[in-house]
C-alpha cells in the first residue's frame, strides 16, 4: 500500500447530484486546506440539472467525472472514485458536507500514521444551524459516543466482541465524511454494491477481516440532511430497510413499542429544546410545537420498515426516498 512516486498524498472525492446549495462552500474550503502534501479534488457528478456543473467550472483545479444518473450507486460510485483517484489516501464527502476548518484534510488522514492496520477513518459531523431538533440531537449524541473531540478513537474486533450489538457499535461507519487507504479499496476490500447502507457494510467487512477503523473528531464537517417531514419519513424507511437488506437482525416493532418510543422521544427532545441555548425563545416555541411531528413520523416509518416484505419491490419503492430521487 505504498505511495506511488509523484502521486498526490490525498484525493478528495465529492459525490454530487444537484448539489448547488453547498458545493461552492465545499470547494472553497478544499482550496484553502493546509496539508503537508499535494491534494487532488475529484468530483463525480451523476446527472445534475441545477447549477452544480457551473459551480465546478469556477474551480479549474477540480477534476470532473460525469456519469448518468442511473449508473450511480453509493458503493459502486465510491469504488469508481477510488479507481479514478491518484492519491495514497482517498477522502469522501457528500455534496452537503462542508469541511469546518483548513485543517480538515490533515486531521482526517492523521490516524493512518498510527498503524498500517488502520485502513479507514470516519470524521465528525456537526449539525447545521436550522437542523430540526430530533436530528440535531441524534447527530450530536451519536458522535459524542465515539469519544472526545481532543483524541482519536480506534475500533477493531477482538474477543470482547461477543454480541451483534457490540459488533454493530464497533463497526459503525459513515462515509459522508471519511477517508481510506486507496489501495485497500481497490485491491483488498472494496465497497459492496448495495442499494443503501454501503458504509455500514464496509465498516463491518473491514473489522471482520481483522483491520482497524479510526474516528478523527477534529476532521469535522458541517452536515445534516435538509429534509422535509415527508422526506425524513422516507429516509428512516430507507435506512432501516437498508440495514435489514445487509443482514442486520432488526425485529418487528410492535404498535405498543412504537407508541412508547414516540412518547419517550417527544419528552426527551422537549427537555433538550428547553435547555438549548442555541435557540432563541421564539425558535424554542416553534420547535416545541413542531418537533413532536418528527418523532411521530420517525417511529411510524420505522415500524413500517420492520414490517415490509423485503421481496416486495413495489412496497419498497413506495416508501423510499432514494427511489423518488432517481431519474
From TrEMBL:
Q: Name one GO molecular function term.
A: transferase activity
Keyword Transferase belongs to the record: yes
Give the organism the record lists. Answer: Mycetocola lacteus
This protein is called Glycosyltransferase family 2 protein
DNA repair found in the keyword field: no
Recorded coiled-coil stretches? none
Keyword annotations: Transferase
Q: Where is the Glycosyltransferase 2-like domain?
A: 11-123
Amino acid at each position: 500500500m505504498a505511495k506511488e512516486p509523484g502521486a498526490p498524498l490525498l484525493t478528495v472525492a465529492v459525490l454530487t447530484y444537484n448539489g448547488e446549495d453547498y458545493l461552492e462552500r465545499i470547494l472553497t474550503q478544499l482550496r484553502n486546506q493546509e496539508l503537508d502534501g499535494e491534494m487532488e479534488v475529484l468530483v463525480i457528478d451523476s446527472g445534475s440539472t441545477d447549477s452544480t456543473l457551473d459551480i465546478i467550472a469556477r474551480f479549474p483545479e477540480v477534476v470532473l467525472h460525469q456519469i448518468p444518473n442511473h449508473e450511480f450507486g453509493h458503493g459502486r460510485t465510491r469504488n469508481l472514485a477510488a479507481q479514478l483517484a491518484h492519491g495514497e489516501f482517498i477522502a469522501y464527502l457528500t455534496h452537503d458536507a462542508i469541511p469546518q476548518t483548513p485543517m480538515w484534510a490533515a486531521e482526517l488522514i492523521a490516524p493512518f500514521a498510527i498503524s498500517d492496520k488502520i485502513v479507514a477513518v470516519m470524521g465528525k459531523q456537526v449539525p447545521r444551524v436550522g437542523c430540526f431538533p430530533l436530528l440535531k440531537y441524534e447527530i450530536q449524541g451519536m458522535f459524542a459516543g465515539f469519544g472526545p473531540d481532543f483524541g482519536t478513537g480506534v475500533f477493531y474486533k477482538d474477543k470482547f466482541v461477543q454480541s451483534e450489538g457490540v459488533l454493530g457499535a464497533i463497526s459503525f461507519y459513515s462515509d459522508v465524511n471519511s477517508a481510506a487507504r486507496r489501495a485497500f479499496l481497490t485491491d483488498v476490500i472494496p465497497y459492496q454494491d448495495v442499494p443503501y447502507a454501503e458504509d455500514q457494510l464496509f465498516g463491518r467487512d473491514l473489522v471482520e477481516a481483522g483491520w482497524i477503523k479510526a474516528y478523527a473528531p477534529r476532521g469535522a464537517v458541517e452536515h445534516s440532511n435538509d429534509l422535509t417531514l415527508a422526506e425524513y419519513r422516507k429516509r428512516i424507511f430507507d435506512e432501516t430497510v437498508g440495514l435489514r437488506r445487509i443482514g442486520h437482525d432488526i425485529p418487528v416493532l410492535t404498535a405498543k413499542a412504537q407508541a412508547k418510543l414516540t412518547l419517550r422521544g417527544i419528552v426527551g427532545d422537549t427537555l433538550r429544546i428547553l435547555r438549548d441555548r442555541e435557540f432563541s425563545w421564539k425558535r424554542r416555541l416553534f420547535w416545541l410545537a413542531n418537533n413532536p411531528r418528527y418523532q411521530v413520523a420517525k417511529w411510524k416509518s420505522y415500524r413500517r420498515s420492520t414490517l415490509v416484505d423485503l421481496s416486495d419491490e413495489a412496497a419498497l419503492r413506495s416508501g423510499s426516498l432514494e427511489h423518488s430521487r432517481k431519474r
